């Protein structure tokens, strides 16, 4: 268990942009080295065309495509695939250090809904997470789309999805000291944009959730609604503002943070798989 | 006549013309609007639910701004035996089409179309 957390520790506390990916055609875990080489060549070619211009001199990009065998739900899931781009100054390759400039990983946690009906030649990795410059994301995305005939789409998180995350993650037991649960709302139809940040002490939020949740390990839509309504009523009592008429744009808890533009930050390795399961489900919904 | 919630103020009861149809508008981006509609429904006479009520869900153009549980909306339509229509107010095409549709429904509810009664709308469910 500890070894697992160490291997995935680099995924924590980083901001990841989310994409949904359609199944990859003729992708094979046995050929990861080949993919590294091919992608490397592709990036070099794109650079020659002047498409990935890096400030600060010529940089050689090294590509590493590896598998993360522990990042999956069940054995029916395909193990996560990690793509990392590191740079090294081409002027003095032996002396300079390698620096990680871009990371992207494909994963699938409990993706049976999509994978069970797929023909043999397809690999199901519906969730893609990216950290790094948009220019590299575009190049890597293009290569994958060309090579495996798949399609990437930005995964946005609706206020409806975010409410679920707020309730679900508040219910998770975490070590103290833990950060407060914070909800950020955007108020529509105003001449100047207004954001309302509502922070709730974690213990209070958990106490509220404990009174709402009936069966441990199970969450219903009704329970999420009651939880959020209590928070909204409390706010209304103090500030006479109906938060339910605004747009929930960000949820921040000790477990993870999520933004409606499709950005996630993992904070606890013990809940990493759980959060990925939810995100996989949303990605699959977007694909279908 | 437009109202932000029901019941309508009683002071103007005697001046109000007969009400033939009620359209409840739910903004998919606002949970508050759903709650408002649910609270207002309690003030509607049962006879209206024989085809003279419909739910209009707006803001459906952008599904990633959805704050409302769609299952709750469908259930509302079922429980009150009234059709649920969808519209994106910001798009002129669908706005005009929806307005025409509502107008047609209103004509039927007001009894202006011979041979067609408002009870027909319950078959649209």
From TrEMBL, chain A:
It comes from the Eukaryota. The keyword Nucleus applies. GO terms for cellular component: chromosome, centromeric region; nucleus. InterPro entries: CENP-L (IPR025204). Keywords: Centromere, Chromosome, Nucleus. It is found in: Chromosome, Centromere; Nucleus. Pfam families: CENP-L. Belongs to the CENP-L/IML3 family. This is Centromere protein L. The gene is Cenpl.
Automatic annotation (TrEMBL), chain B:
The keyword Lipoprotein does not apply. Signal peptide: none annotated. InterPro entries: Centromere_Cenp-M, P-loop_NTPase. It is found in: Chromosome, Centromere; Nucleus. One of its GO terms (cellular component) is nucleus. Keywords: Centromere, Chromosome, Nucleus. It holds the Pfam family CENP-M. PANTHER family: CENTROMERE PROTEIN M (PTHR34436:SF1). This is Centromere protein M.
């Amino acid at each position: 268990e500890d070894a697992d957390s160490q291997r995935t520790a680099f995924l924590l506390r980083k901001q990841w942009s989310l994409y949904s990916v359609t199944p990859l055609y003729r992708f094979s875990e046995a050929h990861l080295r080949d993919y590294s080489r091919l992608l490397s060549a592709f990036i070099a070619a794109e650079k020659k065309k002047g498409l990935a211009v890096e400030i600060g001199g010529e940089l050689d990009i090294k590509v590493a495509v590896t598998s993360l065998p522990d990042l999956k739900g069940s054995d029916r899931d395909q193990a996560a695939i990690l793509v990392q781009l590191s740079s090294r100054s081409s002027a003095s390759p032996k002396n300079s250090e390698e620096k990680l400039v871009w990371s992207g990983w494909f994963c699938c946690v409990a993706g049976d809904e999509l994978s069970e009906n797929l023909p043999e030649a397809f690999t199901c990795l519906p969730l893609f997470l990216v950290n790094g410059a948009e220019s590299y994301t575009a190049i890597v995305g293009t290569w994958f789309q060309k090579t495996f005939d798949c399609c990437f789409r930005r995964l946005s998180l609706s206020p409806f999805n975010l409410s679920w995350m707020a309730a679900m993650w508040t219910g998770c037991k975490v070590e103290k000291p833990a950060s407060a649960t914070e909800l950020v709302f955007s108020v529509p139809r105003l001449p100047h944009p207004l954001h309302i940040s509502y922070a709730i002490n974690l213990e209070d939020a958990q106490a509220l959730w404990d009174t709402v949740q009936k069966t441990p390990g199970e969450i219903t839509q009704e329970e999420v609604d009651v939880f959020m309504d209590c928070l909204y009523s409390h706010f209304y009592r103090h500030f006479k503002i109906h938060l339910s008429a605004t747009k929930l744009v960000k949820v921040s808890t000790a477990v993870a943070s999520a933004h409606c533009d499709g950005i996630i930050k993992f904070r606890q390795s013990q809940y990493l798989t759980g959060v990925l399961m939810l995100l996989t489900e949303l990605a699959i919904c977007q694909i279908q | 006549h437009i109202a932000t919630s029901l019941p309508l103020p009683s002071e103007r009861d005697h001046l109000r013309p007969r009400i033939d149809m009620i359209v409840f508008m739910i903004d998919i981006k606002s949970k508050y609007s759903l709650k408002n509609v649910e609270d207002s429904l309690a003030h509607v006479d049962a006879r209206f639910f024989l085809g003279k009520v419909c739910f209009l869900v707006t803001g459906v153009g952008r599904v990633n701004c959805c704050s409302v549980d769609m299952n709750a909306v469908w259930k509302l339509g079922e429980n009150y035996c009234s059709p649920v229509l969808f519209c994106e107010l910001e798009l002129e095409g669908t706005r005009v089409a929806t307005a025409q549709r509502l107008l047609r429904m209103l004509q039927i509810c007001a009894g202006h179309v011979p041979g067609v009664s408002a009870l027909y709308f319950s078959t649209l469910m």
